[in-house]
Amino acid sequence: MIRAENLRHVYKSSSGDKVALDGLNFSIEAGEFVAIIGTNGSGKSTLAKHFNALLLPTDGKIFVDGLDTSDEKNLWHVRENVGMVFQNPDSEIVAAIVEDDVAFGLENLGIAPEKIRERVDLALDAVNMTDYKKFAPSKLSGGQKQRIAIAGVIAMRTKIIVFDEPTAMLDPQGRREILEMVKRLHAQGKTIIYITHFMEEAAAAQRIFLMEGGRIIKDGTPREIFTDAREMKRLGFNVPVATELAERLRRKGFKLPQKILTAAELADALNKLK
Ligand code: ADP
Ligand code: MG
To answer: CB under 6 Å to ligand 1: residues?
Structure first.
């Protein structure tokens, strides 16, 4: 579905070249949920922009749905297949009324007006924002704006959705809502690529890419990635709170399994010790 071959990206500027992606090789299957974590400047956003040809490789290639993104005749099909949700909801809102904002991408696809209305209604329903249809986006909270941005992508019916730190500017409640929505989209069969610096969110994915200095230095399941809490700390990452707590309890002599990711798993494991 998505395949990168020696993908490189170099930003050129008067102050010198910056290698942002340093030869990435990976493939992502249809329907996978991949989280991308990495310290600031490790290349996550640069990679995100290669999935829908907002940026093109300096070297190497990336194929989306089998199509080389750098081939101009594929651009339309690539963009039709990949929806993007970015960090700052304010920069994504383009219209003065919620329903027009959700319809924006569809109007550009030349879809009939009654079909557009139908799709917009379904998308607003999917993000629980039907009541806000006639609202001005400026009146909404950050979390609600982000849900509108997601509705816009849902309405486009892309197979792949790329999220670049969509919850970074939200409060915990807003974050939970967005993550629930992402999980639901995955359950419906979408391919999800989800950049985050919240380890609890990354733990919800099936697979994690850990980026450092423009490379993917780890590629594994959340259990594989987070099990080694010490190694993660060394790399400058936290592990999910439940993983950390299980680790501390183990050091105090509790006989807990090695691979705990969630509060529910920890509660179950402790319950078994009773
Ligand atoms: P991340 O999203 O992981 O924080 P980015 O992909 O935004 O990382 O950036 C990767 C590297 O590329 C950083 O060193 C950053 O400073 C640099 N970079 C990002 N965008 C540009 C740009 N438009 N011009 C020059 N350098 C850039
Ligand atoms: Mg970024």
So the answer is: 11, 13, 18, 20, 38, 40-46
